[in-house]
Amino acid sequence: MHFSEQNPYKKEIVLSSLKQKIAAIPEGAGALFFIQIFATLGFAVLYSTLVLYATKKLGFSVKDATAIMGVFGAFNYGLHLFGGYLAGRFISNRNLFVGGMVLQVIGCASIAGGTSYLLYVGLAFFLTGSGLNVTCLNLMLTQRFKPEDLRRESAFLWNYAGMNLGFFIGFSVAGYFQLQEDYPSLFIFATVGNFLAIVLAFINWRVLADLNTPLLEATTKQFRLRLMAGIAILFGLVPIVFVMLHHAEISGNLVLIVGALIAAVLTYLALIHKNHRERNNMWAYLILTIGSLVFWALYQMAPMGLQLFAVNNVDRMVWGMEIAPQWIQNINSFVIMIGGPLMSILFDKLRKRGWNIDIPRQFSASLILIGLGFLVLPIGISLAGGNGLVAFKWIAISYLLQSVAELLISPIGYAMIGRLAPRQYQGIMMGSWMLVTGAASILASQFSGLIPEATEGLASSTNPTYHSLFSALGWSSVGVGVLMIILIPLLRKLINDAPKQV
Predict the structure, then answer these.
(1) Taking each helix axis from N to C terminus, what angle separates 116-142 and 426-448, rounded to the nearest 10 degrees?
(2) Residue 352, by phi and psi: left (phi above 0), alpha (psi -120 to 50) or beta?
């Protein structure tokens, strides 16, 4: 009797607390979580399947397929830099996002045609759209929070979990159709998924409006002129990307050159910036970018060297069932999807107890963890059986360590831009942060190119090369991680929210 009388009261308190938490979420942040899921599906399918589709269906050599995958990553991430500028000054973030998704839909539908020519056409459309609109999602989310709002980190962790839910779905479906060798159905699935992201964007159109960009200062006439120019640029990039896809090596070198130039520009801007606090923040950003380049160069091995290793050198029969290569990558998606919210809750509790878990410490830990993720693979190779095949558990452990490392660095990196970037440089710094991943993709392609071609059943012929490569990459990352630990006091001094006198 006594319990039943109190129970409705307790339920009312719980519901009231839940309503308060929901009300505290900035308008638009929740919508972006669900949009992110569907916007990710097309990329997940291509990211996990492009090398296998090009080799098994279209007859590409492993070297050519890996080169295309390197350019795929480079263009997708490299165009993020230009996307921030184009959205902030010409089109607006929500307009560019929808325009980019339209190009992705056209791209996936074209690739479903099943020819080499349509692959290049589809990739040109898809990469232009994906490369430009991802920055828009991150900028729309970061604009929902004030610079000093500590909830930004949690929001990006949740959003990153949503993105990886999209990856999980995409990888799962891709693995199923891969085993069936039904590629047309797979790319049609990607087309429909990306189209639903457009539908969700239109449903939430009002709450996705830009809140803090230079474009908001333009007059109505100026906005219309810039919008038309922006749309022309958006579609004009497609034939340029199409041509550059046919010259993978030149395109890759171009991305590396552009990355170096952007680094030089940001260094110059930091030198001449007058605000002392913001200048220090920019220096911290540049130092952390170097660590990020090392991290992503290893991480981008997943759809290239690591995938080839999994296909040809790993025993993928587990409990009598063949594991599709894409399903192995789902280890990463699952850890991020579940671990993102859990890490957000854990870090909040630890910080309330006085633990100093900050950006420099997380970067250091992520570099060491991904290094260890590569160092376990040579152990597995050394313990391989007479057929040369590595036990599945070793690549599973590797992906687990890499996933935890990604959880530490990637969402925090995005949220960091809103904290460290001066308002006038927010777009270029968000874009350049993603350009680092593009440059890393080229480096990962070059690393993968060091592996001689092999077919299934000949694992022993390439095991020594994999052993040397994974060892070198792993120890290099661990070394950079240790260096970042040494630099933690300096980075903490540079990352300072308290205003200082100029």
Answers:
(1) 140
(2) alpha
The candidate with the shortest Cα–Cα distance to 89, out of 190, 218, 202, is: 218
User: Cβ neighbours of residue 39 under 8 Å, at least 6 residues apart?
Assistant: 97, 101, 133, 137, 166, 194, 197
Domains with residue ranges and CATH for the chain: 28-494 (1.20.1250.20)
The helix (H) or strand (E) run that includes residue 321 is strand 321-322
Q: Which residue reads 């999980």 in tokens?
A: 168
pLDDT above 90 for 320: no
- Coil, strand or helix at 322: strand
DSSP state of 314: B
Distance CA(41)–CA(186), nearest Å, equals 11
Tokens of 285: 């950003």
* DSSP class of 181: T
What's the farthest any 2 CA atoms get from each other in the chain? 78
Kindly state the tokens that stand for 446: 């070059």
- Per the structure block, which two tokens stand in for 208? 């996705």
322 DSSP β-pair partners = 317
**Type of residue numbered 304:** M
Highest mean pLDDT among 78-87, 204-213, 255-264, 471-480: 471-480
pTM for the full predicted model: 0.77
Alpha-carbon gap, residue 209 to 28, rounded angstroms: 9
